[in-house]
């Protein structure tokens, strides 16, 4: 290997295996609707009602990550990320709520998870309860990573000005802070993967790919106004 070449990291390998799912997410009609500003109020409200509950579970899983951590720098990171979800990630929700015409108080009050949101949150909770810290982080990582990549793509494509209804949403997820969060995830996952055995690495990969697929169907849940059939 030359001085400039380096081997592919575990998280780079995962990203490349998940590429067809990422591409399907970028093409998804809900994501295109954010770019084109043409989602209905009902679709936006449906998304925020489920996503608010999803992010509450995300905070709970960070709490489980703390309980599996032995390093203070990891505990500090998960603690900060709970603060990020609670204090910062409410802004993109407020943007969607405003455009939807539904009051945020009503959307925040939803307390029933629809099939897809239930499936995704149970997947992250199961990974957290049954797995190692590395397995847990692989189930969480597609959450910031897919949104960061969506944000970057839409910012580049749309270059939203003040008249774009989802300017705040796009700029929030394209912000370098979200890129930093992704790099912090990747650094930890790569470290944990290098200490993990074959079976644990296989679980890490499975949890990551499942979460990427869940991200994709979460958009469909909102776009198609999914409900329990009975
Ligand atoms: C389902 C989902 N995935 C990711 C994100 C971005 N944190 C989110 N708000 N919701």
TrEMBL record:
Q: Which family does it belong to?
A: Belongs to the TenA family.
One GO molecular function term of this record is: thiaminase activity
Q: One Pfam family of this protein, by short name? A: TENA_THI-4
Question: Carries keyword tRNA processing?
Answer: no
**Biological role stated in the UniProt entry:** Catalyzes an amino-pyrimidine hydrolysis reaction at the C5' of the pyrimidine moiety of thiamine compounds, a reaction that is part of a thiamine salvage pathway.
Q: Which UniProt keywords apply?
A: Hydrolase, Thiamine biosynthesis
Q: Which organism is it from?
A: Rubrobacter tropicus
**Recorded E.C. number(s)?**
3.5.99.2
May I ask which residue range the UniProt record assigns to the signal sequence? none
Classification from the root reads: Bacteria, Bacillati, Actinomycetota, Rubrobacteria, Rubrobacterales
Q: Which InterPro entries match?
A: Haem_Oase-like_multi-hlx (IPR016084), Thiaminase-2/PQQC (IPR004305), Thiaminase_II (IPR027574), Thiamine_Salvage_TenA (IPR050967)
Q: Which GO terms describe its biological process?
A: thiamine biosynthetic process; thiamine diphosphate biosynthetic process
Q: Where is the Thiaminase-2/PQQC domain?
A: 17-224
Entry's Gene Ontology cellular component terms: cytosol
Q: To which pathway does this protein belong?
A: Cofactor biosynthesis; thiamine diphosphate biosynthesis
Reactions catalysed, semicolon-separated, are: thiamine + H2O = 5-(2-hydroxyethyl)-4-methylthiazole + 4-amino-5-hydroxymethyl-2-methylpyrimidine + H(+); 4-amino-5-aminomethyl-2-methylpyrimidine + H2O = 4-amino-5-hydroxymethyl-2-methylpyrimidine + NH4(+)
**What is the protein name stated in its UniProt record?**
Aminopyrimidine aminohydrolase
């Amino acid at each position: 290997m030359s001085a400039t070449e380096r081997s592919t990291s575990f998280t780079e390998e995962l990203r490349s295996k998940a590429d067809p799912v990422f591409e399907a997410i970028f093409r998804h009609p809900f994501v295109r609707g954010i770019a084109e500003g043409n989602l209905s109020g009902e679709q936006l409200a449906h998304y925020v009602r489920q996503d608010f509950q999803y992010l509450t579970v995300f905070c709970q899983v960070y709490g489980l990550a703390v309980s599996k951590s032995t390093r203070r720098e990891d505990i500090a990171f998960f603690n900060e990320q709970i603060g990020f979800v609670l204090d910062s990630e409410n802004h993109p929700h407020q943007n969607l709520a405003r455009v939807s015409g539904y009051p945020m108080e009503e959307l925040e009050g939803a307390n029933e998870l629809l099939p897809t949101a239930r499936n995704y949150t149970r997947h992250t909770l199961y990974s957290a309860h049954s797995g190692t810290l590395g397995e847990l982080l692989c189930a969480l990582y597609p959450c910031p990573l897919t949104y960061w990549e969506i944000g970057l793509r839409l910012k580049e494509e749309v270059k939203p000005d003040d008249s774009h209804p989802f300017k705040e949403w796009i700029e929030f997820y394209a912000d370098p802070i979200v890129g930093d969060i992704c790099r912090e995830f990747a650094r930890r996952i790569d470290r944990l993967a290098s200490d993990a055995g074959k079976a644990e690495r296989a679980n890490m990969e499975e949890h990551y790919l499942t979460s990427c697929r869940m991200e994709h169907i979460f958009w469909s849940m909102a776009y198609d106004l999914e409900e329990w059939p009975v």
